[in-house]
Amino acid sequence: LTPNLQAHIGRHVRAVFDEVAREPVPEHLLRLLKDLERSGDK
Amino acid sequence: LRRKVSSTLRDQLVAEIGSLRAFAVSLCGDKERADDLVQETLFKAWNHLESFKEGTNLKAWLFTILRNTYFSERRKRRREVEDADGAYAARLSTHAEQHGHMDMQDFRSALSELPDDQREALVLVGAAGFSYEEAAEISGCAVGTIKSRVNRARNRLATMLGLDPEETGPQGEGLSKTA
Prior knowledge:
The complex is a heterodimer. Helices cover 79% and strands 0% of the residues of chain A. The longest helix of chain A has 19 residues, at 3-21. By secondary structure, chain A is mainly alpha-helical. The mean pLDDT of chain A is 88. Chain B is mainly alpha-helical. In chain B, 72% of the residues lie in helices and 0% in strands. The radius of gyration of chain B is 18 Å and the shape is globular. Mean pLDDT of chain B is 83; it is low at 91-101. At the A-B interface, helix 1 and helix 2 of A face helix 1, helix 2, helix 5, helix 6 and helix 8 of B.
């Protein structure tokens, strides 16, 4: 593949990935970390 | 000790959740399941913090836990998972043929149809920002294996999407399809 085509594909892979990565973190995952932190303090 | 470490470490873990979710979705193709995977990963990471060497790559460590969790669960319930994957791929692939040009949905479908190991390698190196060496460590294989998986993934995507491998332009958005 030409470098240009590789770059095209690369941009699309990143776009698919970033679309999810940039979503706000679901509340229940943040809560899990808080709970773990609290239980670690016992 | 744990208490002292925990608030900064918690911030660092939170900072990686977005990437972990994106990686999980790329592995399993399903957001709900991806969130379960991330949850399990965070739980395991927290309970094995003593095995994480501070100052080393936290992101790579988390990605390793997530992919190992995914693949070991997948082995456990292979039949069930294969059915689900088949249905998922079928649902996505119908979409790609409805458009003359390549859009993000076409690309997503093609990506989902790559063999697991190729998709994983491409996402780790091409999107998650890992070096070939880091990706090899995460996937538990040789650097050369990762390189060849990434190459095969790109070539396969180009074929699936009908892209000209000699393509040199245009620079614009979107990939043009060969006639």
